[in-house]
Inverse folding.
């Protein structure tokens, strides 16, 4: 320590007492004998028919590594190529402690930024670096972010059904598990069961897997759904709904206004990211709580929505914007405007991503709610240390770093499918492609 | 660790390998056997005729404590009372790791917030908690904030003189020390040497210590000063100036416009905090770089200036807004708008405050410049581990926490003066009180 | 008088008739043989379990002194230190007649301003100076402010209860006393009786005194409360409610919109002071009358709300902004926008503060309503000259100055408690600290 | 006093000590045995070819009366009629202490308000009531307004000349008298000497007394005038100029921009009151200090200019807006925006008006400058107690009230002329009437 200080030209002669403290609390010399990144890899696993991708950053200290979620965009092989061919060579040899510097320099290393591929692999690296830092500190990452300001992470569950009864059963199940916040949807998104063979298919337009969304039936069924669930479950449950950008902006405005009477906790994705300019109009007409963000990867998508207080919950998918580092910055921005977080956390986010969400959720003041998933046995086998749920709250593992690991041997038992995945095209009855 | 996980109902059976990591990197069980705050005290010292106040937070772990700067407002005894009578009883027994929760709850514990006294002592506690967290992590605090993204902290020095020659000599001295950024002022602020006995004093109005600022002489001398220093030192040096709110808003606008031609690095405090509404007008008329903030203690003072991009550098005095935690939030807010930091750091900020500034400066992307001071021998004796300067850069001690300590025995040799300090009242020639 | 005029070089030879008037109405020579402040002290009393702090300013004229309220922030000892160590030495020897100059110069004498401690003691001095001026003038202070434009001060009373019946009984009691305006609340604030042990306490998070507020139960009970009281008491009574910043901004908007149908006189504190940016959104969606201000201590909190006509009543706690002088300036600002006053005046404001409110209330055009308290016998014993209430109107004593005094001997019988007071931390069920 | 208190139902038993104070400082019972207004009259005088009108309010207390300026609009007989036929009957019997109430009720007593006739007589009453209140208090009125915050009233003088030499001589004269601020004008307003017989006169259009203003010659001569005076008198003198609304808005913008380089203290009346919407455009293009206001009598003329910070000095003619009461409200409004006062005070304002200006000037924080006149011997004979000037500062008489009186016997020696006065019509060369 003294030597270190001297090497840097600092006058440490009077610093004896702190030196002892330094020895007591850990090695303080990492600035001088820095750790190196020795490898960066991406590991994929596909348990239960869902693909999870995780970046692993290894260091020059034996056994010290970190992992970070790079799950979201399902262009698995592209991610692998991005990591193997571009990220790994760039990062090897760098000091993993300089997270901010790595983030900033990687972010512009391809010149063009903001994209789902490059942000995702950067996010994987970023979270892995925080994992490493937490392990070195001997602390869960939320401690580095300022410590806990709540005891656990309150979550919302996804209820759905093909009809009102199925949906009510689903809601009831989650209520019995203790959830206080439940998202209600018919079918998956929209209400495909309402439609027969769409006109465009009859006409031979499009492909087999194309889906249809009809505007009016959807706008009719959603209020009915709220009416039914509210009347059966009363005021004690918080209800959420995701429009998923399935209807034109002006009709989304009409729908949200109609839903206001059911006091939703929030209505999500009234508009596509291309249409966020409509929020100003929506906000002038309703005080229904609004959430948006899972598709965002460009700061112009969220900064104005937050500073103009046009949304109440920011729902960014953290790996889409580059990881823990930028997500914390979004949270800090949003706090000044009392906009709360509701990080994206669906079933196709890796458990590593879920614990990333959760560590932030525990630490920031302006946490709102967390989207929840449950971790199936195969998933837990791949990812030792998965969060657990009790009474609607997510609890994380208190181990250093993010408290989660990936068992690569088990992961290898769940290889990615050969076939590429495509999001089904959604069309209007005449075949017009929708951008949900 | 395992027991801890089990107690929380988590399934950790597969977590064996992380358990080893936890043992390797430190005790990870602090959520379960938390540290306690055992004492909170304020220590004052007055070496070299400057008062420095530092809050010391002690914990249940022998030898583990943190210190934080509570220097700025020179109401020393008021700060002592606030700490001894109100903060200490509130904080004893709390877990020092929950910094965010402590900040939020202390901030509203007196119901009214935002003030220079209560923010200052809260800031002392906040920085001390980060000091403790850094020591526990075995890391300098900047590591907890994301690591370094610059090698050292570029600083600006304060040159001044009673005439152009003296000022040029002062600038030359700092250039020889390597400073690239130099603030130039005549006299201290304004140009008191230009005035004789002001009219109000002749009339028996005001008191002996009152000072006078004349608008036009000040507005005339400042461009001359820039002209002289630019012509002597060329373009290689960055020049700064602090108007210190001494002239009416419209004349500040005129002065800044005139100074634009000398390419200042920034012009500081064109307006009093009550008058920040004038920035919109100023910004429309000049692209001269602008800095503001040392007097701010309410979020409505800085949020709009940043989000409307009305200033280029935010110069908050960190202990005035409550410490490291809110300062990092300001920095994060400002990053979204590419507004840079230039934290207030004059000679009457304690070395503990200076290292607080410096740790943030090293870690954030949108660092701009740091106001510098030098630490005299007596000050260094009181505060072992003071930053050092080399070639215009501030270097901090790399020890865990903030790497600085207070030697209370030495501090006791420099007691506070009995006499209270008052900022001299500044008046116009007719006696009108100015609010600088 | 003549001599005085001559000394100042004025031609007063023709002024004989006014000289007589001067002799008739008092000594007019104070500019020439000015009074001096000889002492400034703070006196605390704690009758009925409530702390009242009053600043006493004594002058060089035997028996001539003034008192001013320095009650609000319960950091009593900090206030004492601020007065004894800083204000008193600064003010001794100054002319108590120059109130504006004293206010302006004291306000910046610590450089940093706006805080709850320093504003409060400044307010105490300011009101005391007006008290002195009134006594010298032989006039109640409201006369100096322009005279009466109403015969007495219409007030609102605080009704509350643990259930609808208790609340209705409370309302009935106030109606029988003649009050036309009644604030209705369940429990104290929020509706703590609705909740059992909150989740965070079960989890061992927080401390014993922490309180919980649940958003939906509160939002449900308030409209029911209005419905019940309206149906029982009809349209003749004006009803008020204080949200006390207990729910998130968007839900406050929803609640205010729902309450509009019950025609409240005003809804108070929909948002925390940090969140006043939400008023623009609220104002676009409802014409429910709005009040805000008790937590304000920085001009940027109220100027925009008034000039943008975003609130209908400004509810500043006068000692929080520095006293009668700035409060009159707020009132004058608000008059241009027909924003009315409803000064903060709860039970824990001293009677001196209440009469300060009342003198302004009597004199300004844009008075709206006054928050009322009743003065218990012990309080009246400490403060001879307390206001009285009749038929819902507050009447003040017509003696010169503010017409109220403090009996220090009696005050000494009610010493402050040793234990510091803290506002109980309010949390959401998950432990999130709320900032009310 | 006690009886008074008892009569009002107040509990005063413990109030003995204040009762003594009440007796010491005057009769405090005026709320109970109020003074009455017994007469309201207007007195005109025409010394030195200038008409001065003063309202005199007499009371039920022998010898106690007040006077107020009702000078400005030269419709003397209309003013007399307004006072005699309407104001006097309304006011007789009212309590002169209730100034605010009288102002508010008189203001709407004709239903239509804001006009120069009715505002002027209301102003006369209002100032007279403050005069009475000051006399009753035994205090100069500035004491009731908060006391002095400057030792005297800094003034600007009017220099003018038919050519540059004459103007320079005029400036020199005022400099020698000590004035630091000097308004410079060619001719009276505009530059009539530049023109020969205008075209419209050659064509037989208009009447003999019509004047002409040519846009370009005026725009050419004003910068030359500034250039000349600046080069002769240097930077030490503050220069002002009054455009007097003589040129079209866009040319006023061009002129002000050109004058910016000469650093005027302010440029007055760039636009007619009908054209204040141009200030936004002007403000975006120049930081030249701006003043406006002498023609204002409607709040929409000044409120927005102040709250949008579009002018730097508000120059209201106080009797045009209704007197001291509204003028203080304008001053308080302007203080929040750091807009300073420069009350209108030309030679055709009565000395009573000048002392009204001065009492406000001494008391408010945001005083800027005062327009000055000098009082000729005959005027001083009519108005005993006129202000005096020394070194460019106006000093007022320190007697109670406004310290000025009117000697009606002397006034009668200077009767109004029989002929009505008309402001000369100003035209463009083609005869177009200008609205200056």
């Amino acid at each position: 320590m003294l030597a270190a200080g001297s090497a840097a030209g600092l006058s440490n002669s009077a610093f004896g007492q702190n030196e002892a403290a330094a020895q007591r609390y850990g090695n303080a010399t990492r600035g001088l004998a820095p750790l190196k990144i020795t490898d960066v890899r991406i590991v994929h696993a596909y348990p239960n028919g869902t693909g999870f991708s995780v970046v692993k950053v290894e260091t020059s200290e034996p056994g010290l590594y970190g992992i970070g979620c790079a799950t979201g965009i399902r262009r698995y092989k592209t991610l692998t190529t991005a990591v193997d061919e571009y990220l790994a060579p760039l990062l090897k040899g760098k000091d993993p402690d300089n997270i901010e510097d790595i983030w900033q320099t990687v972010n512009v290393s391809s010149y063009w930024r903001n994209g789902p591929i490059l942000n995702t692999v950067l996010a994987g690296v970023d979270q892995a670096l925080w994992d490493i830092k937490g392990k070195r500190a001997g602390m869960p990452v939320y401690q580095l972010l300022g410590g806990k300001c709540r005891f656990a992470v309150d979550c919302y569950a996804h209820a759905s059904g093909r009809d009102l009864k199925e949906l009510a059963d689903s809601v009831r199940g989650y209520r019995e598990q203790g959830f206080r916040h439940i998202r209600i949807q018919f079918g998956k998104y929209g209400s495909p069961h309402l439609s027969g063979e769409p006109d465009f298919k009859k006409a031979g337009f499009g492909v087999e897997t194309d889906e249809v969304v009809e505007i009016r039936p959807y706008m009719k069924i959603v209020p009915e759904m709220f009416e039914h669930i509210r009347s059966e479950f009363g005021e004690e449950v918080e209800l959420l709904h995701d429009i998923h950008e399935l209807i034109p902006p002006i009709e989304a405005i009409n729908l949200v206004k109609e839903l206001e009477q059911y006091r939703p906790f929030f209505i999500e994705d009234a508009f596509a990211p291309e249409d966020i300019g409509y929020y100003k109009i929506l906000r002038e007409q309703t005080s229904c709580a609004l959430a948006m963000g899972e598709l965002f990867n460009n700061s112009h998508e969220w900064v104005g929505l937050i500073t103009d207080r046009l949304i109440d919950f920011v729902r960014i998918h953290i790996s889409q914007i580059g990881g823990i580092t930028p997500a914390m910055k979004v949270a800090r921005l949003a706090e000044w405007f009392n906009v709360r977080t509701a990080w994206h956390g669906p079933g196709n986010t890796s458990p590593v991503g879920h614990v990333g969400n959760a560590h932030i959720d525990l630490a920031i003041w302006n946490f709102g709610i967390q989207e929840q998933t449950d971790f199936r046995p195969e998933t837990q086998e791949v990812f030792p240390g998965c969060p657990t749920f009790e009474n609607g709250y997510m609890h994380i593992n208190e181990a250093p770093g993010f408290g989660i690991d990936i068992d690569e041997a088990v992961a290898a038992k769940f290889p990615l499918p050969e076939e590429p995945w495509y999001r089904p095209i959604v069309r209007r009855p005449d075949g017009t492609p929708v951008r949900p």
In short: Residues 144-402 of chain A form a domain with the TIM Barrel fold (CATH 3.20.20.120). Chain A has two domains: 37-139, 144-402. The first strand of chain A starts at residue 37 and ends at 45. Residues 116-137 of chain A form the longest helix (22 residues).
